[in-house]
Write a structure and sequence with these properties.
The chain has about 450 residues and is an alpha/beta fold. The protein has helices spanning about 1-20, 60-75, 95-120, 135-145, 155-160, 165-170, 195-200, 210-215, 240-245, 255-265, 280-285, 290-300, 305-310, 340-380, 385-390, 415-420, 430-445, 450-455, and strands spanning about 50-55, 80, 80-85, 90-95, 175-185, 190, 225-230, 275-280, 315-320, 400-410. Strands 1, 4, 5, 6, 7, 8, 9 and 10 form an 8-stranded mixed beta sheet that branches. Strands 2-3 form a two-stranded antiparallel sheet. Helix 2 packs across helix 17 (about 430-445), helix 5 (about 155-160) packs across helix 8 and helix 12 crosses helix 14 (about 340-380).
């Protein structure tokens, strides 16, 4: 019986493959040009005296709603000069949370008031190919992905981002928004940041925000990979710090060795012309690996801060926001299972979560060392150097405190946790599901002990 089932499954796969529809996305990134601004137009100093860095995990629209709840919670905490939302200096995001991060980066506080009604409640699935029983969808799945650019990215751009590019994002005041996808071939994170686009000789300032978010959310099979291309004929000399990394990469880290191989391949047209991008959560579902990689790679005591930021910052709170949920199943109460699709999804989740935990653990290990290195750098500056970097007249070089907080669905109080854990990882949700994810994030954020400590210390 089992042999017959396997033969039937193989025959079905062959039949579908025979009529598969080739599905792929055409790259839209443009080459560097004479008009490309320095650093793609991105500001270089984001940190405040009191700064909060947010790392938002993936998880479909549930993660987008959860990230929104965190932002609105911070906006509800008053400070002497505004709210804690004003302290947010950087947001790193993957997958569904990239929708929230990009929208907030483009629209600021005023956009938060519209986000639930305009983005979260409508969702996106009514404009996508979703039926697993449609033979045409099955053929597209085999051919590259059920949904392509016209099924999701274009609809998202029309209803959410309205043609905005990274130049639009960089022209607004506010936090640094770092959207992260995954390089499917090299199996490393692919952050949409000027440094990476300098290496592929492409102009990030002209790149569509919707394309970046679609790349960050491109779950394999459901979506065809987003594609960016390299432009070796348009390359410019790299900034010294990036050139140094490529010439003498740090040793001892297998993760960075993989990233280094990818970066080198990006500059070699005989090895890479097209970079295929999938969901950012595949390589780092907590959106922290770029911080860790920059800390390791740049080789300065303050990286990824700039010198000016290292002199300016006093309090830095990093909040890792995990909107993931435990498996919605009763395998542990039954002898049978998991099977079929559940088994496949479970295996994928294991790989994703293991990588995410490793990245988060790496961040936890460096926070204290990072703080001590910044203090040593500040206290080693000469008076003339301090003045040149913008240090105030009354300045305590050792008055620096870095801390790390973790906000996870699984650590919320029982009733809220149970309600959020049954919310599926989809791109359309019921209003009640959206609202309970928002409420859980708000209450969880405000209950963080490290946030309360940060609020007390920021005025000292």
């Amino acid at each position: 019986m089992a042999g017959r089932d396997l033969r039937l499954a193989a025959l079905l796969a062959l039949l579908v493959a025979g009529c598969a529809t080739e599905v792929y996305n055409v790259p839209t990134n443009e080459p560097l040009s004479a008009t490309t601004p320095p650093n793609m137009g991105a500001p270089t100093d984001y940190m405040h005296e009191n700064s909060i860095v947010l790392a938002f995990s993936g998880g479909g629209l549930r993660a987008a709603a959860f990230a929104y709840g965190v932002l609105t919670a911070l906006d509800g905490v008053k400070t002497s000069d505004g709210t804690l939302l004003d302290d947010v200096a950087m947001i790193n995001s993957v997958s569904g949370s990239s929708l929230t991060a990009a929208y907030y980066g483009l629209n600021g506080r005023a956009g938060l008031a519209r986000f639930r009604q305009d983005v979260l409640l409508p969702g996106f699935e009514d404009r996508m190919r979703m039926s697993p029983f449609n033979p045409a969808n099955l053929a597209r799945m085999v051919g590259g992905g059920v949904n392509a650019r016209e099924d999701f990215r274009d609809a998202m751009d029309a209803s959410v981002f309205h043609g905005a590019t990274f130049a639009s994002l960089y022209s607004r005041p506010g936090p640094r928004i770092l959207i992260q996808a995954s390089d499917l071939y090299h199996r490393v994170p692919f952050p949409f940041m000027p440094e990476v686009f300098q290496i592929i000789c492409s102009d990030l300032s002209r790149y569509s925000i919707a394309d970046a978010v679609a790349g960050s959310m491109a779950v394999p099979v459901l979506f065809a990979p987003m594609v960016v291309r390299t432009y070796p004929q348009n390359c410019r000399p790299l900034p010294p710090e990036i050139e140094r990394i490529l010439r003498s990469p740090p040793e001892g880290s297998r993760d960075f060795a993989a990233i280094d191989r990818a970066l080198r391949d990006y500059r070699d047209p005989s090895r890479t012309r097209y970079i295929k991008l999938g969901d950012g959560g595949l390589t780092d579902n907590f959106a922290v690996s770029t911080i860790v990689a920059q800390r390791v790679a740049y080789g300065t005591p303050y990286a990824p801060l700039t010198e000016r930021e290292a002199v300016k910052v006093r309090r830095l709170l990093l909040i890792v926001v995990d909107a993931a949920r435990r498996p919605a199943t009763d395998w542990t109460l039954q002898e049978a299972g998991p099977s079929g699709l559940e088994l496949l999804l479970s295996a994928t989740d294991i790989a994703v979560e293991a990588a995410a935990r490793q990245a988060a653990d790496a961040l936890a290990r460096i926070v204290s060392e990072w703080q001590d290195a910044v203090v040593k750098f500040r206290c080693g500056l000469k008076p003339v150097e301090r003045i040149a970097l913008g240090a105030p007249a009354r300045w305590d070089c050792a008055d620096v405190k870095f801390s790390l907080a973790n906000l996870a669905v699984e650590e919320l109080p029982g009733p809220l946790r149970e309600q959020i854990e049954v919310i599926p990882t989809r791109l359309s949700l019921e209003p009640e599901q959206v609202d309970v994810a928002i409420r859980g994030a708000r209450e969880g954020t405000l209950a963080l002990p490290r946030l309360k400590t940060y609020l007390e210390e920021r005025t000292r």
